[in-house]
Amino acid sequence: MELKHVFSPIKIGGMEIKNRIRMSPMALGYAEDGRSTERYARFFEERAKGGAGLIDWALWPYRTEHGYFPWVFDDKFIPGLKKVVDVVHAHGAKIVGQFGTGYAWAFRGGPLEIVGPSGVNLLKRPSTPFRVGTPTARHMLQERPMTVEDIHEMVEGYGHATRRLKEAGFDGVELMLAAGYTLARFMAAETNKRTDEYGGSLDNRLRIVREIVEDMKKKAGKDFPVFTKISGAQFTKNGYSLEECAEEIVPMLEDIGICCVDVVVGWHEGPEFGLSNSARPGQYLYLAEAVKKKAKIPVIGGSRTNDLRVAEPALAEGKIDMISLGRQLLADPETPNKSKAGRFEDIRPCICCCWCLETVDTPVICAVNPRAGREYKYSVEPAKNVKRVMVIGGGPAGVEAALMASRRGHKVDLMERQEQVGGMIEAASIPPFKDDLRLLLDFHRRQLKKSNVEVVQGKEATVMDVFERNPDAVVVASGSRPFLPDIPGITRPNVVLAVDVLTGKKEVQNEVVIIGGGLVGCELAEYLIDKGKRVRVLEMLPRVATDLPRVLRADLLWRLRQKKAQIETDFQVTRISEYGVWGIRRSFEYGPNEAFFEADTIVLATGYKPEDTLAKDLEGKLPVINIGDSASPGNVKEAILGGFLAGMEL
Question: What is the pTM of this model?
Answer without folding.
Answer: 0.96
